[in-house]
Amino acid sequence: MRQVLHRLLIATRGQGLVEIxxxxxxxxxxxxxxxxxxxxxCRHTSASLLIQENADPDVxxxxxxxxxxxVPRDPARYVHADEGEDDMPAHLRTALxxxxxxxxxxxxxxxxxxxxxxxxxxxxSAPHRREIVLHLLGD
Amino acid sequence: MRQVLHRLLIATRGQGLVEIxxxxxxxxxxxxxxxxxxxxxCRHTSASLLIQENADPDVxxxxxxxxxxxVPRDPARYVHADEGEDDMPAHLRTALxxxxxxxxxxxxxxxxxxxxxxxxxxxxSAPHRREIVLHLLGD
Amino acid sequence: MRQVLHRLLIATRGQGLVEIxxxxxxxxxxxxxxxxxxxxxCRHTSASLLIQENADPDVxxxxxxxxxxxVPRDPARYVHADEGEDDMPAHLRTALxxxxxxxxxxxxxxxxxxxxxxxxxxxxSAPHRREIVLHLLGD
Lengths: 139, 139, 139
Known about the structure:
The structure is a homotrimer of 139-residue chains. Helix content of chain A is 25%, strand content 39%. Chain A has 139 residues and is of the alpha+beta class. The first copy, chain A, has a single domain, classed as Jelly Rolls. In chain A, the strands form two sheets. In chain A, strands 1-8-3-5-6 form a five-stranded antiparallel beta sheet, covered by helices on one side. The radius of gyration of chain A is 16 Å and the shape is elongated. At the A-B interface, strand 4, helix 2 and strand 5 of A face strand 1, strand 3, helix 3 and strand 8 of B.
């Protein structure tokens, strides 16, 4: 059994879901691990990870709108405001989703379902460069 | 150290929590791994995983009702409607919970607390057959 | 490759976030694993885990207040009441966050971002002694 670490840099265009299934799969394919466990870790507190439907773009639209309504960008609600009005909502949306996903690997690929894609969920308004750590273990 | 993959098919009866602790434990017991890490992965975007209280059935009832209120099945709220009125709420409830759980194994058993059970959370109205991938690593 | 299990007992002072980054890091440092995967598992259904901002204490205050509003301690909303008015909200807040985190390890340390801390989120009113299982795998 062996393990390998990798760093992925993902440019976001402000608030919204960015699919990273392709980037993760491409790297995985080059590692020649047939069976294993892949962990995806987001090193931020205002961006998070989600496995979501990868077919209809309306799902992403609805999902973004849902989080906007559930965690409003209303400065009157929060004490923390140092980094802008979008920062505290970003922390809360991160708390409600995940910063880490572990996905089994079989036949050299993530065992995602037919409609599952891996997404980085940017919660800030401005574009950011996000750092994702990949840890792969297997043989 | 060795690893093993397994596929579990779980029949649901429509929306609600289905305890799968027994199925997972039974399989684990047969693998004779004393210390390790077990990852449970749900290959769907309208069903998810939860570790919840396994004692009072009222907890499950309240939990299902809470998610009904937090993510209403109200078609006026969502654009995505192709697969039925229960589909977009199912994606959102999946986003708010998890599709993956990793549980340490000690003495051949998951280290669940006394009141913790592993549940599959079906978010669609109709019964489904759900595919869960188990990845076990240890020795 | 080798693995090791450890049990951490954390005393909470009632509802709120307790940072455990230090306790986890200290244990990790003594294990001399350079590259690996660390899994943190909370054995409870009324306390959970979160990776959150570790700089401004206002973030924790806002986060606690947000969960108070999202999952009110209002007995009229829940059937389950056997263990006190704070118990069912505690289960729901646990469902909305996580009981497990897996964090890659590089150069002997968790690959946390500059602003990420690991927190135990106590959801009950009374102080509790919480049991966290750490599983570390690597070499």
